[in-house]
Specification:
This protein is an alpha/beta fold and 336 residues long. Helices cover 52% and strands 6% of the residues. It has a 5-stranded parallel sheet, sandwiched between helices. α2 packs across α3, α8 crosses α9 and α9 runs parallel beside α13.
Length: 336
């Protein structure tokens, strides 16, 4: 009986010990699971817009944008790029979309060809949305010589610009939106700088970005964060493009979009003289003027009176605009 009693006590003790161990292990497991869940939740919150982690990431990736949004003085960003970056190449190629061009029947003023003799490699520089494609079309029609590009826009290549991607003396102009000092300059012998009012250029580029070459962005886009960030970033890019290329060491011709629009005959002839091309006949020029709109010049929108720029945005754009046009005036005075 004594042995039986002791055996039962040992069984009870062992049972309690095992239960305690299991309870302890189970409790530790719950604590680990809870800690992991808390960490995941914390990480998710930190990555949300406006969190410390998100702000730190934004500061690393785009310090100019964050400084501006915090009301701090913006420091001019250094020029970037040499020729077309992969990101820009992808963006240009994405223009192969519904409604990217109008199926317009145009009178061909002359057969287009590559230049039979090598020409100076001339950059046609602009901020996107400034009429670069339109000017290429006019020059091709007036001279009969194809224009090239540092990009390969498949939509343009199929509709009137077969020399897309060509960067040599077989074409009369080479389109580029890139800037970056001597790294960009060294590829070109001459430069034509196409300048358009920043408000119109930014608006046109936003429409191209969300509506293709000839379309328009939906009205809702202008009320979104995308529009606010677009204006902040592109107004500075507009300025950097011209502040950089105005330092080009070789022959430089400035073509203002508004003057080209209002005085097309004289401006196209002026461009031809700068390129050292033969005088354009009056018959050829009359044809260019009759077909001046082309396929890729965006038509006026029914809502042209809509002003998407806020007062704060206008204050920022005006600072950049004033600085650029002041330097343009100085350049024009020095080269009269």
């Amino acid at each position: 009986m004594v042995c039986t009693s002791r055996w039962r006590k040992r069984q009870l003790f062992c049972g309690l010990l095992i239960s305690f161990i299991l309870f302890y292990v189970f409790g530790i497991g719950l604590l680990i699971h809870k800690a992991a869940s808390t960490a995941r939740s914390s990480k998710s919150k930190d990555d949300s817009p406006g969190s410390v982690t998100s702000v730190a990431g934004t500061l690393r990736e785009n310090p100019q944008h964050l400084r501006y949004r915090l009301g701090m003085k913006a420091v001019p960003a250094p020029p970037v790029a040499v020729l077309a970056s992969p990101a820009r190449q992808d963006q240009e190629t994405k223009d192969v979309r519904m409604g990217a061009h109008r199926d317009v029947r145009l009178e061909q003023c002359t057969a287009l060809r590559y230049s039979p003799t090598p020409l100076p490699i001339t950059a046609l520089v602009s901020f996107p949305g400034s009429g670069n494609t339109w000017l290429r079309y006019l020059v091709q029609q007036a001279t009969g010589i194809l224009t090239g590009s540092v990009y390969k826009d498949l939509e343009l290549k199929r509709h009137g610009f077969p020399a897309e991607g060509c960067i040599n003396g077989s074409v009369v102009l080479v389109k580029t939106h890139e800037f970056g000092g001597n790294n960009s300059f060294k590829h070109f012998d001459k430069t034509i700088l196409m300048v358009r009012d920043p408000y119109d250029a930014i608006l046109a580029e936003f429409n191209r970005h969300y509506g293709g070459h000839n379309g328009f962005a939906a009205m809702a886009r202008y009320k979104s964060q995308a529009w606010r960030e677009f204006v902040e970033g592109k107004s500075q890019t507009w300025s950097n493009t011209f502040l950089d290329w105005l330092k080009f060491p070789g022959p430089l011709l400035i073509v203002q979009y508004e003057r080209l629009r209002d005085d097309l005959d004289n401006q196209v002839r002026r461009i031809a003289r700068f390129l050292n091309l033969p005088e354009i006949s009056q018959d050829r020029m009359d044809c260019v003027i009759r077909n001046s709109e082309g396929k890729f010049k965006r038509r006026r929108n029914l809502e042209d009176n809509f002003d998407p720029f806020s007062r704060q945005q206008r204050a920022v754009v005006n600072v950049y605009k004033k600085a650029v046009y002041m330097l343009i005036d100085q350049h024009e005075k020095q080269n009269r």
